[in-house]
Amino acid sequence: xxxxxxxxxxxxxxxxxxxxxxxxxxxxxxxxxxxxxxxxxxxxxxxxxxxxxxxxxxxxxxxxxxxxxxxxxxxxxxxxxxxxxxxxxxxxxxxxxxxxxxxxxxxxxxxxxxxxxxxxxxxxxxxx
Length: 128
Hints:
Layout: H1 11-26, H2 38-59, H3 62-90, H4 96-127
């Protein structure tokens, strides 16, 4: 395993960025009147994932990093819900590639959360 010198080295951030890019490529298929509605919501949820991962890493503490990874996980749930709403209400085509990336990113972020939770427990045991 390579050392993490920057948030850019994190697979969770890399996949999150790819997910956000795919969402931006998918949303032009939405009706124009949704530009400031669901399009904006879907894009904000997607961009929130890598942004929270980067911010959490940059804050430099395990508790803050964990908190921001949990926020990224919440944004992934928000994204999934927004996608389902777009497919149901706007009748846009279901974005298979986006859904697969969302699922992959979700698994990676969850693994990161578990690792950070273990690290916190280990730090607490060491300090007591």
